[in-house]
Amino acid sequence: MITQGRSLRKSSGGFKRPYRKKRLYDKGSQPILTKLGPKRKLRIDRITGGMIKHRLLQVTIANVLDPATGKYSKAKIKTVSNNPANRYFTRANIITQGAILETELGKARVTNRPGQESIVNAVLVKA
Fold this sequence. Notes:
Layout: E1 34-36, E2 41-46, E3 52-59, E4 61-66, E5 71-82, H1 87-91, E6 94-95, E7 100-103, E8 106-110, H2 114-117, E9 121-124
Parallel strand pairs: 1-3, 4-9
Antiparallel strand pairs: 1-6, 2-3, 4-5, 5-7, 7-8, 8-9
């Protein structure tokens, strides 16, 4: 289990003695790297308090806002043209917040966190 507790290693490399076992509220997880894929694929995770999160693993469609008209429309994602989070994410077509997508309507910037919200929202960017 991945936890967000303290490290059990000293700065010298030796072990610290654990003062308690792992707790459920210490639980963490690997980052969800939402990819551009052939169909929408979700994973459901239980979180603290019995709630659930829908993790988006693959997606092809984004909700794109046109700032000129103030209207949302669904647009097919062609590719990820730039991702400032990591330059290798651009090559692998991984979508994170702030990524620039090439859509049918033009270039759009992702405004939400798709790995945590199970949807891709974006705003058109003037070219």
